[in-house]
Request: fold
Amino acid sequence: MNHSNVLPRQTNSLDGVNGQKRISQIVNSLSVTAASLAFILGCLFYSLTGYETIFYPAMLETCLFLAVIPLSRHTSPETGQKTLFALHTLFIIFFGIVLGPASQVYLFAPFLAFCTFLVFREWKSRIAVLLACTALIVFVQVNYRIQLIPGLALSAGFINTLNWIAIATATFLNCSVLYYFAKESRSRYQQLTELVDQLYKTNQSMKVYVRETTHEIRSPLNVVNSILQNYLDKADHSKRTIQIGKAHLEAVHFACQDIQLVMNNALGWSKIEAGKDEVIKSSFQFREWLSQLCETYEYLGKQRGVYVNTVISEAIPDYIHTDIAKLRSIIVNLLSNAIKFTAHHSVVTLEAFVRNEQLCCTVTDQGKGIPDEEKEHIFDPYVSSAQQQNEPIGLGLPIARYLARQLNGDLKVTDNRHASGCTFILSLPLEAAAPPEPAEESIDYELMKGLKILVADDDSMNRLAFTIVLERLGIQVILADSGDEVVPMALQHKPDIIIADMVMPEVSGLEVISLLKNNKELKHIPALLVSGNCFSEVQEEVAASGADGFISKPVTAAALFQALKKNLSVCA
Reply:
């Protein structure tokens, strides 16, 4: 599946699995290096001086450094880092005191500083550790003068040798940690670069996504606006009512369903982000569905002086099996673009037929056409044809082709064979289907008569919408325009069910549920939450709140009826 318009997921964080592995490798390498160095120098110093005070601590140092490897593996790489740093500091100070000024302990200060920046992430921790290490090194230097802790008696020859060994050891350790510091810095820089790139791609994808969504909503909104504007223009302003044709009202309702479909797709963005933009097939009556869809766009066409002609072959099975949401989006985008770019007072023709066991739908306009060299590029986002300078093609055609290929079909363009203009050809696998299972039982308008429901919503239009639907069901409606009114009004009116919007100022719907469940007189009343946000996280939040149900906006009569019916047994 092509995920070109899918939000890229962040696969690598700065402290992800790869970061943990990298830290473990650094800890292991430094532990082995430090253990080897301690063992070699311990044996060398013991052979030169014969002091067990040097030999045994050096062997202990070797064992402790090697023990960091299993410690890091069984706890965490960060624990190994801090232990390694503590051991280095401890033994540098110890041998600095024991071996005296010849150890030149100050040479190891850069090593400890680099280690501090490698091990600790927070600046407060880094500053505190650096100050502590500085204090220890100063203490060792002061100790040389006042002899608080006496060192070993060393020969002049050994001191001379020790000077050079200290310089070599400090240089080696400083270079080693500087190498790993530089390597870690490059790695972090690369990760930051990748993260910036991911964020840029995410930003671009979100821009495309918002444009796609607004593009899809604009077409059905145009239908609603065209029909309503037509009636308003013809209305007698001396009258308060307008008589509207049933067919026109059905077209408005159908367009609103289109908008709701786009919104549902938007609310499923979490699935798209996760790469789960699945094809969901269902059985439906294709010819009737397509006729109704085309009738809706006839009104939009008339506003532009365009006639939409629909020809549907009888060879197409009564019921087909495909993803109706994606097919609707393809047809809508093709019709919208055809009406937009065809000539005024011309005809847009949609034909549906069967060819080579494929369902084919062609949309033909009578515009200026598209030059051959531009035919493929029009499927790129926001490409404007040289012949169509008024407005860009936008995202309709890229969306349509993307969805067609998701359905194992394709979308192509060719010239109109009978006149100027072009023909878009959609071909999909044809799957005949049996009639679907009977839909959910119809609304019983007698079932809920006499119920009393309290609705809380800060938006007056939403309160009006609930009132229209609930009163049609014979329900007495009590309205609250804020969350803080719910408990007092519920105590006063004793409603059978309470419905609260999730997002309200001062007291949210979730807080309303909490107040209701903590009130002895009201906790038995079923409480439903309503929201325009239907992401899975929101629904999980609703379930955790103790609400008795959830309804998504826009609220339909059928959805509201089913939600209320589930709680009727509680009301009884």
Summary: The chain has a mean pLDDT of 81. The chain is about 55% helix and 10% strand.
